[in-house]
Please model this.
Amino acid sequence: MSTDPRVSLTVGLVVAVTAVSGGAILVRLSDAPSSVAAFYRVLFTTLPLAPVALWRYRTQLAGITRRDLGFATLSGIALALHFAAWFESLAWTSVAASVTLVQAQPVFVALGAWLLLRERVTFRMSVGIAVAIAGMAAMSLGDFLGGVLVGPRPLYGNGLALFGAVMAAGYVLAGRSIRQRVALVPYVVVVYGACTLSLLVIVSVEGHALTGYPPSEWAIFVGLAVGPGLLGHTVLNWALAHLESSVVSVSLLGEPVGATILAFVFLAEAPTTFTLVGGAVVLAGIVLTATASRT
Model:
């Protein structure tokens, strides 16, 4: 009996979004410096992919031009800054606010494509961007002005999450044209390699140790790689071959919802009213932006 491909895709997306949603919880459970956790997440995601790239895609790897290699390196650096900023934001603001704000990257991709690539912004995209920005302001300022805060420095944490979203957008924009010429596995190995080295520099500059952590921390590092890294983003990349990118992008909006529920269950962290309402507005803006037609 044949399996309905729509069921497989639905199951795949549910698995991917669930795996990605757990990333913020694992970061909060870790006592290691955020840059160290980010470093090992990317390193442990890259290690199983590198042999595949070297064995099955060695010709494509050797054929990457200097220009594409340069942009892939920039993409990796942007991804490193995304992880470093987002992981650190989780120490200062709520999981709900951090994950929602960092998921705003489609908004910044649209803005960056307009500013840097001269891509046209449709009216619906403009409305989506405006709605998302209004939601961000409500999330960041509402709790502060209302005097009910979740996290030691929510404004600082929210700012880091937004910076992480901007860097994620840079990662997408830098890699947009390269993926049309380079296969997925060699591309991500080059990007993840650059990201790993960049995070290693950040860890060194901050003066953190790479060893001496208890087994529980190593389990979290591996969990970050296997869950959000391999099961999350790998499955999403598989889904992109069968679904429109807008559908996959919008499915990722389940991450803030899932992460908020998991934070309540495992961390006893209840989001404030401003975070919930502002987050809903941000998600609505992202939906409008991600599903807007460019034609």
